[in-house]
Design goal:
This protein is 0% helix and 37% strand. By secondary structure, it is mainly β. The strands form two sheets. Strands 6-7-1-2-5-8 form a six-stranded antiparallel β-sheet, with no helix packed on it.
Length: 104
């Protein structure tokens, strides 16, 4: 990919949500909302502090994140629709569930 965000910006690819609800109802394309979940594709070096030092980002490439519905700016990079946003627009990182033993 030929794009590197600057400062505390990140490039996010939206992750499509399931087409079915938990009850098994299929949601048509016209009724779907834009997903507010995505995967970090590229990240800038971090924000600069008042003293000029670079503060590293809390997110990294490959993280699955949750962001605000109207956060970021839609861009087209290499023919792919992505979102560029500041790290502060990200609400949180979605962590993978750890597989463990079931309680008896």
């Amino acid at each position: 990919m030929g794009f590197k965000p600057l400062g505390d910006r990140v490039l996010v690819r939206r992750v499509d949500e399931e087409l079915k609800t938990a009850g098994g109802i299929i949601i048509p394309d016209t009724a779907k909302e834009k997903p507010s979940e995505g995967k970090i594709v590229s990240a800038g070096p971090g924000a600069r502090g008042e003293d000029g030092t670079v503060m590293a980002l809390d997110v990294k490439v490959g993280d699955r994140v949750l962001f605000g519905k109207y956060g970021g700016t839609d861009v087209n990079v290499d023919g792919e629709d992505l979102i560029i946003m500041r790290e502060s627009d990200i609400l949180g990182i979605i962590e993978k569930k750890k597989k463990g033993k079931k309680a008896a």
